[in-house]
Amino acid sequence: MKKIFYPENTRGAANFGWLQAKYSFSFANFFDPNRIQFGQLRVLNDDIVAPAMGFGKHPHQNMEIVTIPRSGALRHRDSMGNEGVIESGDIQIMSAGSGVEHSEVNASTKEPVKLFQIWVMPEDQNVAPRYDQRKIASLVKPNQISTVVHPRSEAGGNDLWIHQQAYFNLGNFTEDTQTTYAVKQPGHGVYLLVIEGQVTLGDDILEKRDAMGIWETGEIELNVSAGTEILMIEVPMN
């Protein structure tokens, strides 16, 4: 097993007034040549958007974009004709593919919205743009690691999927739990983010917003403390 520890306080940071952001990888005004990406995972931003503010209409191409609101709600509009609100408890998928324009604006005039914005590089270029959105509560089983986003090639009729051999997994633990994550494909790595709480992996202790990249292993054994939420993103490493 190989691993690299990313302490919370080593993330990039920006405060634009309307947006406060923490960057796991090089993005915008934060550049670290040693933190460009983890395998095919390119962006994991931890954003807080002020009331009634947001990301105006802008383009994307050839990127799989996953948005997970943590609190509050975002109003979405895009050039495919999709329009609506995503809120805490939802997960949004957008395949930019051959090109799409969209905006994401805080749906509230009073409360900030907090979210994770995640980009994964696709396995196929210039696919038709697409959009999907689901409630995830029924997908996340208590005190387990649950897969909520699949590769297109493995997705069932109601599954969320992206154009990459990648898996997004969430865990919500109300009890102290020992659990093992089985890596789903050879040559993959896993980026583990502790959203809240504490996780022990071997001799390493990860706390709120700490992260670890793990690869060259078939399984990952975790000791998870009660009150912990985790995000595990499995991606190809090449």
UniProtKB/TrEMBL annotation:
Residues binding Fe cation, per UniProt: H58, H60, H102, E104
Classification via Pfam families: Pirin, Pirin_C_2
Record keyword Iron present: yes
Keyword Membrane found: no
Co-factor note (free text): Binds 1 Fe cation per subunit.
Residue ranges annotated for the Pirin N-terminal domain, each copy included: 15-120
The entry's keywords: Iron, Metal-binding
GO molecular function: metal ion binding
Cofactor: Fe cation
PANTHER family: QUERCETIN 2,3-DIOXYGENASE (PTHR43212)
Entry similarity comment: Belongs to the pirin family.
Protein name (Swiss-Prot/TrEMBL): Pirin family protein
Organism field: Aureitalea marina
